[in-house]
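seq as requested:
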Amino acid sequence: MRPQLVVMVKEPLPGRVKTRLGRDMGMTGSAWWFRHQVAGLLRRIESPKWETILAVAPDAEGMQSRVWPAHLPRVAQGGGNLGDRMARIFRSAAPGPVCIIGADIPGINQQCINLAFQWLGNHDAVFGPAPDGGYWLVGMKRIGAISPRLFDGVRWSSEFALADSMATMTGLRIAKTTVLRDVDTVSDLNALKHLSR
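struct tokens:
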């Protein structure tokens, strides 16, 4: 069984994706940025070591979308908050380790993903922290039943998202891997440009 890497993507439509970034640079510009960011990300991270799967939203549009590569399998994210959607992915995926990533993190590469799966060799879960208190990756080995409380009460889009998520994994051995920055605002983009110099 190959590990599974699930990438959370939304249809890149102005006003429906990266709206905080859109307030800084315009909704069309932020949607354009997201579409090209995801295309580059998918080219970088595909590997024979794991199966890459797209978790799409909105469900019906995402499953039929021509924006994303046709050769990658897709699953619908379904309803609810981010935690509801990620918990559903962990519960419904084929047997084996699963890592879920966001699509708005320019620094993700195959080495980052490989390291996260390695952490799952002797841990039950792994997180890829972000500097703002959130995270860009969550992975689970999925040995045994997944807690019905997984991601309950997490304060999403806050500096508490990582700590709250870890608190829902009572009794699990949790590792942290590479810290990477996601892009929510123009200042995030500028910070990434500064780091790449």
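The radius of gyration is 16 Å.
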